[in-house]
Amino acid sequence: MSLSFFLDAGLSSALPSDASKDFVKQAIEEKFNVELNVQYMAGGQDHVNKINTLIAANDAPDMWKDTSADGGLKLATQNVLADLTPFVTEASMPNYFKYWITPQELKYFQGIHPFMRAAVPYEKRAYRAYYIREDWLKNLGLEVPDTYEEYLQVLRAFRNNDPDGNGKKDTYGFTTTGDSGKQLGLDWPEYMKNGLVFASRVEDNKFVDTQTDLRMEGVINDIVKVNEEDLVDPDWFLNKIGQQTEKAAQGKAGVVLGTTMTFALDSNPTSLQSMTKQLFPEANWIAFNPLGDKPLQTMLSPGNPFVFSKKTAENNPEKIKRTVQILDWLASPEGFLLTHYGVEGKHYTREGNTITLKPEAYQADIVDQGNFLDVWDFFTPNNPTVFGFEVIDPTMSDRDRQILASIAQIPTLPGYGMTLTAPEGFDLASFRNKQKEWQVKLVFEDKSGSKWPEYREKLMTEYKGQLLFDTYESQLKQVGVIK
Amino acid sequence: MKTENGIAAGTSGAKGINRRLQPIGRDLLRNRWLYLMMVPGLLYYMIYHYVPMGGLIIAFKDYNMGDGIWGSRWTGFDNFVTVFSSPDFPQLLRNTLLISVYRIVFNMVPDLLLALMLNEIRAQWFKRIVQSVTYGPYFLSWVIVYGLVFSFLAPDSGLISTGWRELTGQSISLLTDKAFFRPLLLITDFWKNTGFGAIIYLAALSSINKELYEAAVVDGAGRWRQLWNITLPGVRDVFILLLILRVGTILDAGFEQIYIFLNARVTEVGDIIDTWVFRRGLEQLDFSVATAVGFFKSVIGFILVLSANRLAKKFGGSGIW
């Protein structure tokens, strides 16, 4: 039986060209008696477009991980996804439900829609944190900022007082990405300063869309201020996603946002810290919160679903059943260990629940082979605690542990845990594009947020934003999040 | 025996029809190999250009991928209404037309000029080198061209931006400059495509009878006279032909290039119909609306080609038909 999957992976990860080195593929093919045909791309719009094209060409994969902004709802309405009711059950996916996703979560994720999308297990711990060059602070005799005002002072010092001591004024305070010139992005601490928290949320029994809230006026004013003072990397707007981290690693900026656990850990060979150290051996990035004790994000909701092709389900339901078995195995301790840490005895050793990694073998067999586990770990986040495993990584430094401890102290707000759908026929892309275009215009041309309420009004009427958010609220009411 | 009878019967029975079809039949028979050679070409156009036109009906339907083209619901002109009532549409149309017209003016004329200049070069080796060098960029994709442009113009790290900052102490950001976006499109298009565009004119130039020049020299015509009275009339038909073809695609303002160059600060001057269709059709799965726009574009293009052809004929040219 041959199965085709379309997965997501990091930009620089790839399956080994020599298939004999791909021990995960071999394990699955042997265990389940299948032949796998795996395609993958970095998640995001291009990933979505590629899959849409495959579907339109009547060549949809049997299973794929959806990475679209609406969690696959658009595809569900296009009637190309299989109904999951007969396939995804607590009996057919025991590990999935036991360790990762509760039936209640799945119900919320489904919202008011037919059961065609099931949440891929997701990272429930929040890792959104700002990182700052501690060595720069030390050079300038400054403390880690604890309030937005202190943060501003640090940005000024990073820009003007030559923190790297090379005698040139070539450093900036903050850097971020405008997604290749598309938007302001949500990385700016100025959002939190104005009371807007990352991702939308329910506040005082009302749905708050962070990006179009009235408080954006203040956010824009503050962003203009740091730009006008020349404290931010001037390339930020045109930076591709991920390029801001490169800029930070090149010593061009002293503050950057990270959203993953290993973003700046020594134990991750491709982390910000590891990359920066290649150029500046004394560099030291530490996690901090420029807003003191204010939350930086809401609790994460399941984002990406796994879905099956309706065509396959109708013509060949056996294929879906087998795929479900494979997915559940990936969610089991055995599959988790293989897709995150490699082969027992070779890449790690196990004693009871203690896993000890072997970094050299991991480097040689996995990282140097395209870091291909990054493709195969698509089904589970790197969270061994759900199985009660304790992972000992010999490369993990005290510094790493300290970073993780400080991230754990950053508070999060509760989220609403469901996917919201735009009303039928609503042109969400045009709406968001217009919003982004106007916000960019306010920052770069008007250099003031004072016209935001005016633009916002236009978004709400001309581009039907009010209808959108009313629809969202009524969906939240249906599941009881808003009373 | 059997065969003989059969042939005999066949010839006598088909006599009447044969006489009527004779001219076509004989022609077919005589040129059968030539016609056979045409079949693959015809098939190509049938399969890849005419059959897919049937898909245009989704412009009048609410296309749903699961239900397929036939199963989807009819909606009449709803999709067209959606397009024309979109608040972005006037701006899209204006940008598309402006960029297209600019391209015709600023990219067709340089093509011709380059061909004329190359034509005047007497040293063949030098001409070949120049031609190859100018032709080269045509083979680069727009992604690469954007990469080059970015490394020149990125506000912080770009070569030109850095130079400017060193000289004047002020920073510039040309990639996000509304006033500079359209010129940037034209300049890069010019750099990439002029060498290629000149080739067709060079071919036309080489077909001009050399005796005309000799006769002109005898009559005492200088270089400029020769250019004006012999060379330019010699390429006029080709120029008009290309112009008509370009007018037909005036609502294509160059998707590949603009999609890559576009950013939110220049959307106002750079967002064109095709980028909108891409977002709406492929990113939003709104194939019907995207098809409606494509249909609209084709109709306009068709009308324009017909009128341009009429005009060309009226002013003494030969047109395409």
UniProtKB/TrEMBL annotation, chain A:
UniProtKB keywords: Signal
InterPro entries the record matches: Bact_solute-bd_prot1
Record PANTHER family: ARABINOSE-BINDING PROTEIN-RELATED (PTHR43649), POLYGALACTURONAN_RHAMNOGALACTURONAN-BINDING PROTEIN YTCQ (PTHR43649:SF33)
Protein name in UniProt: Extracellular solute-binding protein
Organism of origin: Cohnella rhizosphaerae
TrEMBL record, chain B:
Sorted UniProt keywords: Membrane, Transmembrane, Transmembrane helix, Transport
Membrane topology, as annotated: Multi-pass membrane protein
Pfam family, one: BPD_transp_1
Residue ranges constituting the ABC transmembrane type-1 domain according to the UniProt record: 93-308
Compartment(s) where it occurs, according to its Swiss-Prot or TrEMBL record: Cell membrane; Membrane
Highest taxon of the lineage: Bacteria
Classification via SUPFAM superfamilies: MetI-like
GO CC annotation terms, alphabetical: plasma membrane
InterPro entries documented for this protein: MetI-like (IPR000515), MetI-like_sf (IPR035906)
Family label: Belongs to the binding-protein-dependent transport system permease family.
Name listed for the protein in its UniProt record: ABC transporter permease subunit
Organism: Cohnella rhizosphaerae
Origin organism lineage: Bacteria, Bacillati, Bacillota, Bacilli, Bacillales
